[in-house]
Design goal:
The structure holds 2 protein chains of 2 kinds. Chain A is mainly α. Chain A is 74% helix and 0% strand. In chain B, strand 1 and strand 2 form a beta hairpin. Classes of the chains: A mainly alpha, B alpha+beta.
Chain lengths: 313, 365
């Protein structure tokens, strides 16, 4: 039946077939150097160049010796590559009384960032989960208060917090700073988690309740395993925010426990002696390296998490 | 206390969200082993009622009994229910086996008992080969089967279905529908099933509760609801293609009452009026398309002429649209005897097969 039909059609349109064979067929060809592509990639390249230029200057300068820097050609690549500025920035640069470089600040920052990130995310994710899924009494009021917190300028709270920390005996310690960071991360992280958990289908939550899972059971066994992407986002936000923080670091800690950013400032802004541009550049790159690494590592994970979430399931 | 043989019993159930009354003092008794369908358009409160029975929503007033036990304040897991959701609601990060065993692990059942139940469930639903897969690797029909399995392993008395087939395509839907019916016949559990699909309701139910605005309009066997709807709303909601409505006036004519529609008088002798008997005044006659005959040879109590306006072939039958006076009227005729558009046809039907509603209250007369 279909064969006969095909034959008939073939016979009837014999001429047409011959004619159409010459015409366009299949995927439309695309030119590599179309005007659109030139504009698009040109604009992208320009923007990338604009942002990368300062980084280039920093890297190049940090690899030069001081005599070469004094020549004044900041864009020229180093004639004699030296890693001495890097070593000095890390291990021997002086800040105040200490001459052990940024390494002290680095470990201080690690000791501040890791517990702050863990504590703030742990509390905020449970907050968000409770707000999104267990509409407890007063949930809306609680949420409003929390969000208002996000709009109050930090500077307003600095002095009251100093007093509070002094009264509980944590002023000047790393743990005091950890608490401060955890508190200030709370509003935005709670909002983040609440909105994410609110997008999880409600029926999933209901099914888990019928299956006899309680508050923590649902959180640990259903919600958390489903929410890797948002946890990665929260880690990115918190690590960059806390690592790059300067204000709280300088206020709530003592010189021996200053975070890396404060120490960097002290190295770069020394008023005595020669300005060692190469050491300053190396120190700055070193300080900025941690958030950068986090971006590169978790960025990949983040995309994978998003992709996994996008598959119907 | 609920009567013996009653599985689920709802007493004066009310639910309010602020000023909005979603359920209004609702009463419902479901017998042991019965398949009850809650049917209604979206927003009528049918899913809300199911969620209240499941314990997923806190009620404002009233009581709920399951198997004679007052479960009004019980947690969902303690009510002896299993629930199947529209979106399947499978835990995406767990395998099928993990999904089935989650509730049993929460109940701290011994491991060999869990294994035994999963094996039995997998056999009933034929999902054995899927046990190690993740939900994302399953098709829609397989997912819903697993979701049913998750209710089944709990070994409960009452199954609650919340529009379980609405996310499936038409073919799968009819396949799973038969399967659910078969499951019910095998297990003989009580099942409460929420749907907006009247075909599902008609085919599955022992009894249907038609709901609207948080109230049950009619609770009866499917055939009774189809043939003797209590009000115009139920009449219009049940049946596809929908019922025809003809507005007219009931008047006493000679020895029997008549319904006057335009200049056509329809004799109502033999119409099963309710206890109150007939009364004069405006009324609406509802007649199903399959009860309207076109060009039939017999003598019909009501006969008229009309012109065919639209013809809708539906395969085995054809729906023919014509007019009776000013009102549109559809008739369901065998496809091989369907007239063409523009044909003049004789229309005939028997008011005894129709339903008569009061024009003001919409209630059945």
């Amino acid at each position: 039946m279909s064969n006969v039909g095909a034959l008939n059609a073939a016979a009837a349109s014999f001429d047409a077939v011959a004619r159409d064979a010459v015409g366009p067929r299949g995927a439309r060809p695309r030119k590599t150097f179309s005007r659109r592509n030139v504009f698009l990639y040109g604009a992208l390249a320009l923007a990338a160049l604009y942002y990368l230029l300062p980084l280039y200057v920093m890297v190049v300068t940090s690899l030069k010796g001081m005599p070469e820097i004094r020549l004044g050609n900041i864009f020229s690549p180093p004639v004699e590559i030296t890693f001495e500025p890097w070593a000095k920035a890390w291990a021997t640069a002086c800040t105040g009384l200490n001459c052990d470089g940024l390494s002290r600040g680095f470990w201080n920052s690690v000791r501040i960032t890791v517990p702050s990130v863990i504590a703030s995310i742990a509390v905020a994710s449970v907050n968000g989960y409770a707000l999104a899924n267990w509409r407890f009494k007063g949930a809306d009021t609680f949420f409003t208060i929390l969000i208002v917190g996000a709009f109050i300028p930090y500077q307003v709270m600095i002095y009251p917090l100093v007093i509070v920390l002094r009264e509980i005996g944590l002023y000047g310690s790393l743990w005091g700073l950890v608490i401060v960071h955890s508190i200030f991360g709370m509003p935005i992280l709670t909002l983040l988690f609440r909105n994410y958990f609110a997008s999880v289908p409600e029926e999933l939550f209901k099914a888990a309740r019928v299956d006899g899972a309680g508050f923590w059971g649902i959180y640990f066994k259903i919600m958390m395993p489903m929410s890797l992407p948002i946890f990665v986002v929260a880690v990115i936000i918190q690590v960059t925010g806390i690592w790059n923080d300067f204000l709280f670091g300088v206020i709530y800690t003592r010189p021996e426990s200053y975070p890396m950013t404060v120490q960097l400032n002290n190295i770069v802004n020394t008023t005595m002696g020669v300005k060692e541009y190469n050491v300053n550049m190396a120190a700055t790159i070193l300080t900025g390296l941690v958030p950068l690494v986090i971006y590169f590592l978790s960025g990949k994970l983040f995309v994978r998490g998003i992709a996994a979430g996008a598959v119907k399931g | 206390m609920a009567a013996l043989g009653t599985s689920v019993s709802v007493r004066d159930l009310s639910l309010e969200f602020g000023a909005v009354k979603v359920l209004k003092s609702l009463n419902l008794d479901v017998a042991d082993g019965e398949f009850l369908v809650l049917l209604g358009p979206s927003g009528c409160g049918k899913s809300t009622l199911l969620n209240c029975i499941a314990g997923l929503l806190d009620i404002s007033d009233g009581q709920i009994f399951i198997k004679g036990k007052n479960v009004t304040w019980e947690e969902p897991k303690d009510r002896g229910i299993g629930m199947v959701f529209q979106s399947y609601a499978l835990y995406p990060q767990m395998s099928v086996k993990g999904n089935l065993s989650f509730g049993l692990k929460n109940a701290r059942l011994p491991r060999d008992e869990i294994e035994r139940r999963i094996e039995r469930t997998a056999k009933i639903l034929q999902i054995g080969p899927l046990l190690d897969r993740k939900p994302s690797q399953l098709s829609g029909g397989q997912r819903q089967r697993v979701a049913i399995g998750r209710a089944l392993v709990r070994d409960v008395d009452v199954f609650l279905f919340d529009e379980p087939l609405s996310n499936l395509d038409a073919k799968l839907r009819s396949e799973l529908r038969v399967e659910i019916k078969r499951l019910h016949q095998t297990l003989e559990n009580t099942m409460i099933y929420v749907t907006h699909d009247q075909i599902e309701a008609m085919t599955l139910a022992d009894r249907i509760a038609v709901m609207r605005n948080g109230m049950i309009q009619q609770l009866d066997r499917p055939q009774a609801i189809y043939n003797r709807p209590v009000n115009r709303y139920v009449a219009g909601f049940i049946g596809s293609p929908g019922m025809n409505f003809l507005e007219g006036i009931v008047e006493a004519g000679g020895e029997a009452p008549r319904l006057r529609v335009g200049d056509l008088a329809m004799p109502l002798d033999g119409y099963p009026f309710d206890a109150a008997g007939f009364k004069h005044g405006p009324a609406v006659l509802g007649i199903r398309p399959e009860h309207v005959a076109l060009n039939a040879s017999e003598n019909w109590p009501v006969s008229a002429q009309g012109v065919v306006e639209v013809v809708e072939p539906m395969g085995s039958d054809t729906l023919v649209w014509t007019r009776l006076g000013a009102a549109p009227l559809s008739a369901r005729v065998p496809s091989e005897r369907a007239p063409d558009v523009g044909d003049r046809v004789g229309i005939g039907f028997d008011p005894r097969q129709a339903s008569l509603f009061d024009a003001a209250s919409d209630m059945r007369l």
